[in-house]
Amino acid sequence: MQLIDQHTKSIMEGCKERAREAGLSFCDESLEYIVTNRDLLELSAKSMIPNLYDYWVHDVDVLREKGRYELYPSNPYETVINTRPAISYYNDNNPDWLNVMIFYHVLAHMDFFQNNMYFQHTWAYDFNGEALADKRLIARLRSTYGRWVDYVIEFARGVDNLVGYFNALYQIDQPEKPAREKMVDYYFDQFLQVEEEFTQVDYLKEIEAFNRSVREDGSETGTDTFFIRVRRKYPEFDEKYKNWSEKEKKQRKQDLMEFFMDHSDFLNRQENKWMKSVIEVVRKTSLFFQPQIRTKIMNEGWATYWNDRLFLEDDRINGHEIDFSKVNSQVAALSRIGLNPYALGLRLFQNIKGKAEAGKYSYTFEKLVDQKARRDFNKTNGDGLDFIFAVRRHLCDGLFIRRFVDQDFVDQHRLFVAGKKLNRSKRTWQYYVKSRKAEDYRKMLLENLYHPPSIRFSVDAGGVLNLIHVFEGYPLVKDFIANTMLGIEYLWGKPVTLETHQVKQLNKTDDKQEEPEVIWEKVKYTMDQRKLSMEWI
Prior knowledge:
Blueprint: E1 2-3, H1 6-22, E2 30-35, H2 37-44, H3 56-71, E3 78-81, E4 86-91, H4 96-115, H5 127-145, H6 148-157, H7 165-173, H8 179-191, H9 203-217, H10 219-233, H11 237-251, H12 256-263, H13 274-294, H14 296-313, H15 321-332, H16 341-357, H17 363-367, H18 371-376, H19 384-394, H20 397-404, H21 407-412, E5 417-423, E6 428-435, H22 438-447, E7 454-459, E8 465-470, H23 478-492, E9 496-507, E10 517-528, E11 531-536
Parallel strand pairs: 2-4, 8-9
Antiparallel strand pairs: 1-2, 3-4, 5-6, 7-8, 9-10, 10-11
C-alpha cells in the first residue's frame, strides 16, 4: 500500500476545484492510497480502517473473502473512509479517465460524511488515530490477560448493535448546561414549584429579584450574588440541589454497554476493571460506524449523482464517454428484483431535484389527483440544488424513503414488489409482480434497512438484570439468543432474563392464502450459571 503519485494527485486536486465550484463542501486534506485487490480483502475485514484492533473474526473474514475472490475475482474501483483527513483506496491499475470519475465519487462521499447530521459525532476527531491507540491498548491487555481479552470483545460485540447512537447525537445537540444555568433552572423550576414547603413563595418576586441582580452586576456575578441571598434564606438549598443533580445524572438514558460499565459489580471489581476499557473500545467503534449503516442508500446515491454530473462536464474524459457508460451502468443499473443502493439513491436525488425545480413540493401539487395534471405540473422555482443539499444534510435512509418514495416515483421507474412461489413440477422458484403500490414498495425497502432491536432493561431487588424486547413485529434471531445472553451474564456477573415474542403457531385457513397467519406469544429466557431456560408467559 502506497500513496498515489504526483500525477494522479494533481488529477484529484483538479477534481476538488470543480467539485467545490459545483457546491460540494469538504476538508482540503485527504490521503489517497494505491492498493491491490488482495490488500482490499484484508482491509475490508476491518471495515477499511487499517488501525482497527485485532480480533480473530477479522482473520476469518479475510480467509472467507480470499476464497470468494479465487472463485469470483473482482476489481473494486475505490473505497473511502470517514477519518480526519479522509482516506481513500484505489485499485493499482486504474487509467486516468477512470480516476477522474472515481475521484468525483469519493469527493461526494467526503461531502456527505462531513455535512450529514447523522455523522456529527464523528466530526471532532480522527477515528483512525484513536483506533491505533485502541489497537495498542488491546495488544497490551492481551499480553497480560491472554484469551480473556477476546472473550470480553466477543461478549461486548454481541450487544454492540444496542449502542446508544441517538443518545450520542442528542448530547451534541443538547450539551450539558453550565453549573450556574443548571442551578437557576433547579431553583425556579423545581425548588419553588415542586418542593412543597417552598411553593408558597412569591414566584414573580423571585424572578424580578434575579433579573435585577443580573442587570446590576452582570450575568455571572449577578447570579452568584442572587444565590448567596438564596442560601441565607434557605440553608437547605445546597443539599436539595445536590440530591437533585445526582438523581438527574442517574436518570440520563444509557445504553446497555454503558449500564454494564457503571453498574456491574463484577466489572467494577479492582481485578476486572481492565474489561471496561475493552468494552469502551467496542462501544466507541460501534458508535463510529452507526451512521454509515443508517445512510447507505443516501450516501451511495449522493456519490453516484455527483460523479454522474461532474464527470460528464469534465473535459478530461473526452474520448472515454463509452467507457464511462459501461462502467457506470454496472453500478447504477436499477435492479428489478433486489436492492441496489447506488441506483435507487441516484434516481431519488434526480427525482427530488426535478420535482423541487417544478414546484411539486407544494400544497397545490399535493391536492392534484389527476395523473396527467401531476405529470404536467411545472411552476419553476429554481431551488432544486438547494433542496437536495438540504436533504443530504438532514435525513437518513429511513426518513429519505418514507418522504420521497411516492407513487409518482414508483410509476416513473416502473418499480414493483416481487413475490416468489415454488413451481413444484420444475422444482424452481418463479418470480412475479406482487404489487406496484408505493406503500408496498416503501415497506419492502424499509424492511431491508438496518433496524436494531429496542431493548429496555432494569435490575430487580435480587440483582437480576431484566431485559425487555420492545416487540415491533420482528422476532430476535433465535440462534443468537443463547450466546448473547451468556455474554451478558458474564459481564453483568449475575443472572439475566429476556422477555420477547416468538411464533407460537402458524394458521393457514385458505389454500389460496400465500402467507399463513402468525400467532405471536410472549416468551421469557433466563440465563443462570451459563444455563439457558425458556418459558411461555
